[in-house]
Amino acid sequence: MSKENFIVGIDPGSHNFGIGCIQKLGNDLKLVTAQVIKAPAKESLYERLKVITPKFHALLDELKPKEVALEDVFFAKNAKSAFQLGIVRGVVFAACLERDIKLFEYTPTQVKSTVTGYGRADKAQVQKMVGLLLGTELKTTYDASDAVAIAICHASINRFLAREVESTC
Fold this sequence. Notes:
- By secondary structure, the chain is of the alpha/beta class.
- Helix content is about 45%, strand content about 25%.
- The chain has one domain: Ribonuclease H-like superfamily/Ribonuclease H (Nucleotidyltransferase, domain 5, 2-Layer Sandwich).
- A six-stranded mixed sheet has the order 3-2-1-4-5-6.
- β4, α2 (about 80-100) and β5 (about 100-105) form a beta-alpha-beta unit.
- It is globular, with a radius of gyration of 15 Å.
């Protein structure tokens, strides 16, 4: 299986870090992996990152994607949550920079609109449509199916509309 056209989608979280990888073969999409890196909820952010970071790096080294799509920051319940999410996103940025992987961001509304046709779809609807689009039933968590949806969004969206992170910094 050629890894040339692997796209990794990331649903960043400091407790549940969703990763989805698809392979784009012409107009066809094939699921490679959908998983979650679970970090101990009761631990400090530092301890959670010690779990997430090496596993994420190892997965990138295994998959060798040319592009990673990341859910953009949209809302946080409080300042501390937003700050922690920003740090987790920093792990993704650093890992991609180290490997010269292009990084793109999509809002939750963009992802939902692309995958379901409705920007306010709930997680169950997104998961169901991801399965239909890939021709498989996804038996995974919403964090993993959301990550796959982000990868599908990137594979599907018009290239000139994609917002590459480096062009916005």
